[in-house]
């Protein structure tokens, strides 16, 4: 049976040959799978791309041959920031990541479907955030590599199962297990000193399966039973409830700003912003563009998203705001 591939397939397939990094190749393969017509004539082609995705993800899991505390899986960073998604068995992490990213994620209605950590890219407006889907974790199954992965991440999302009567107890077990390994969570708005970076992570709680009966009370009970500084939101991966709000909360959790560069006399480039930490200054952006700009910067003009600044000339210690447009002059 002929495949009858659409023209869109060939356009996307051409970009695969130009892709250089594993995350880029994975994203393109997932796009190809989404546009391939689903019938008997394309089964082998779809299987080929799924196999390619699996191999690329394996390549991204770097396992040192010797490790004092067991295997450590380090995942290559990609996108604006890296967020580790954590939860007990059957909390719906993988389904939630599938909805957030649109990627082909293995999902099943039984626990431990996810066996190894896997990276996925979540689009948010003009950036992408890397989400790491992790195997279900309990205090008894908390391997050393899991703790190390959290230490090297930028933030953590805890996923609760509102349909599980003991969901607070299961999450408390995970939180306590990490505390014993010197890793603790803090609220999304907190500033973390550099020296505490690996051991103190901003965290957010996504209470999944809010579409089930009786989960409104379960969410209220969770707020009372579960101790912790993190914000909470009730979501449903099944119905899409609060998914867009969850994306916005995830963006806020990262405490970053997107800054657009502008060449004098031209329009601003808004598709690929520079992503910097909240509180970054004009000089931080100049260094991100090129060291020559940092060393030779004369002045800069800024246009703000709210229209308060319209090409205003600013000094080097100007604190950048999200979606600022900056024109550097040397």
Low-confidence stretches: 62-72
Number of helices: 10
Return the CATH class of the largest domain: Alpha Beta
Number of domains: 3
Structural class: alpha/beta
Q: What is the CATH homology-level superfamily of the largest domain?
A: P-loop containing nucleotide triphosphate hydrolases
Question: Could you tell me the mean pLDDT?
Answer: 86
The assigned CATH architecture of the largest domain is 3-Layer(aba) Sandwich
Beta-strand percent range: 15-25%
Cα-atom radius of gyration: 22 Å
- The beta-strand count equals 14
Outline, from the CA principal axes? globular
Helix content: 25-40%
The fold-level CATH name of the largest domain is Rossmann fold
Biggest beta sheet summary = 7 strands, mixed
Termini separation: 62 Å
The H/E string reads: HHHEEEHEEHEHEEHEHEEHHEEE
Q: Which features does this protein show?
A:
single chain; 330 residues; alpha/beta; Rossmann fold; Ubiquitin-like (UB roll); 3 domains; seven-stranded mixed β-sheet; five-stranded mixed β-sheet; 10 helices; globular
């Amino acid at each position: 049976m002929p495949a009858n591939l659409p023209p869109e397939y060939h356009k996307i397939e051409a970009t695969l040959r130009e892709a250089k990094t594993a995350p880029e190749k994975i994203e393109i393969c997932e796009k190809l799978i989404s546009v391939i017509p689903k019938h008997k004539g394309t089964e082998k082609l779809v299987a080929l791309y799924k196999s390619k995705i699996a191999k690329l993800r394996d390549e991204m899991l770097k396992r040192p041959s010797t490790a004092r505390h067991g295997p450590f899986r380090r995942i290559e960073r990609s996108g604006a920031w890296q967020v580790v998604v954590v939860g007990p068995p059957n909390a719906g992490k993988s389904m939630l990541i599938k909805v957030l990213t649109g990627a082909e994620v293995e999902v099943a209605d039984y626990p431990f479907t996810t066996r190894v950590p896997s990276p996925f890219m979540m689009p948010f407006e003009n950036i992408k955030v890397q989400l790491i889907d992790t195997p279900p974790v309990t205090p008894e199954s908390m391997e050393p590599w899991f703790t190390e992965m959290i230490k090297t991440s930028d933030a953590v999302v805890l996923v609760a199962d509102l349909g599980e009567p003991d969901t607070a107890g299961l999450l408390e077990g995970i939180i306590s297990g990490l505390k014993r390994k010197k890793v603790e969570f803090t609220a999304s708005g907190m500033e973390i000193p550099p020296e505490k970076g690996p051991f103190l992570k901003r965290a957010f709680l996504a209470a999944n399966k809010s579409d089930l009966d009786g989960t409104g009370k379960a969410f209220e009970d969770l707020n009372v039973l579960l101790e912790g500084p993190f914000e909470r939101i009730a979501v449903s991966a099944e119905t899409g409830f609060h998914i867009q709000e969850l994306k916005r909360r995830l963006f806020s959790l990262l405490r970053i700003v997107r800054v657009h560069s502008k060449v004098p006399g031209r329009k601003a480039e808004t598709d690929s912003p520079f992503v910097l930490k909240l509180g970054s200054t004009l000089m931080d952006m100049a260094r991100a563009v090129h060291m020559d700009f940092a060393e030779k910067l004369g002045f800069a003009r800024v246009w703000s998203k709210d229209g308060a600044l319209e090409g205003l000339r600013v000094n080097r210690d100007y604190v950048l705001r999200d979606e600022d447009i900056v024109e550097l002059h040397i």
